[in-house]
Design goal:
Elements: E1 5-9, H1 12-18, H2 25-40, E2 45-50, H3 51-57, H4 62-72, E3 76-78, H5 82-93, H6 102-113, E4 118-120, H7 130-142, E5 149-151
Parallel strand pairs: 1-2, 1-4, 2-3, 4-5
Helix pairs in contact: 1-2, 1-4, 5-6
Length: 164
């Protein structure tokens, strides 16, 4: 049997998973997709987070934070080590990812540094963004690592059965 593919969960995943349904139809749909992925697909992957995810998930409303942290409990945590910090700094230095979104640079860097296959997110501004991924890849490649496939839960449902 082959080894499971690896997935780094960025903070939007536990947020969408555990929050009350949004009144915004698009967000509500993304929340439903996240719950469906969690229930049907997560067991097919080896899931990882980092201290950055835990720290972000800890912010805000106490009850909402508790639900997010509960969803993350038991997941393996990848280190934010010197190589990861170096990658993140390179992503921030050229302005590709703004300094105010430094945690997004950390998410990419940690996933790349540890060779994770997928970075799962609903953050389409700085992470799952086709307009910046090529530049992100060049920077990470120069540091000696590969960028994981950055995608949303909608894109990580695998091959659908009974398709013709």
């Amino acid at each position: 049997m082959s080894e499971k593919a690896t997935v780094y969960l960025e903070t939007t995943i536990p947020s969408y998973l555990t929050s009350r349904p949004s009144s915004d139809l698009i967000t509500a749909g993304e929340q439903a997709i996240t719950r469906e992925w969690w229930e049907q697909r997560r067991a097919m992957y080896r899931l990882f987070i980092s201290e950055a995810v835990v720290e972000e998930a800890s912010r805000g409303d106490v009850e909402a934070s508790r639900r997010r942290l509960e969803a993350l409990s038991g997941l393996e945590e990848l280190a934010i080590d010197e190589p990861a910090i170096g990658i993140a700094e390179k992503l921030l230095e050229n302005g590709l990812i703004p300094k105010k979104a430094a945690a997004d640079a950390i998410h990419i860097a940690v996933a790349a540094r540890h060779g994770v296959d997928y970075l799962l997110t609903w953050n389409c501004r700085h992470l799952a963004n086709a307009e910046i991924i090529r530049q992100v890849s060049h920077i990470v490649d120069r540091e000696g690592y590969y960028v994981p496939i950055i995608c949303t839960p909608r894109e990580l449902f695998g091959k659908q059965e009974n398709e013709e």
